[in-house]
Amino acid sequence: AFRNSGNLTIENGVINARGIMNISGSLTIKNNVVINAIDAGGGSCINVKGGEVLIEGGEFNVTNGDQDVEGRYYEPAALTITGGKVTILGGKFNATTTAQYAIKVDKITDGDPSSAELIIENIEVNAWRGALSTSKGTTVVNGGTFNTVGNSGYALYAGGGNVTINGGTFTHASSVIYNYGTLWINGGTFT
User: pTM for this structure?
Assistant: First the structure.
């Protein structure tokens, strides 16, 4: 729906499409924005390839993806980060099908694998497969609720990069955390 390389601010409204790709520049989302990623091709609500993104509120729902007719899995997320800096001060992120993580800091990118940065201050995440997945860069979680309701996946999958947990609540029916990267836990609740 949107490709941004400038300075884009969205304060209110509903987007029902593939979502927003931030290539460079700045993107600010606040207030009552709702983004529903409904593209059957597996697009994310917000896909950050570079620049700076500030999310101060809103609701981000990914219901697309899962499995195509040839049996391949798509794993779109409500928020996918492959570069740039993302700061989340509020908002609700939902991923409702079996092949989805709500938030992914993904390694699929050209260039510096440490270039992605994610800072989470306050957030509500509800996901089937996983609430937060990291494969690169730096992620700092200072608070929020990360719920995973499916039988596979994890509330936090630290598959690479550097992850620091200073606070927040992480819940999963069987496995809360899988660490394959560098993980520091300074606080939080894990059930």
Answer: 0.90
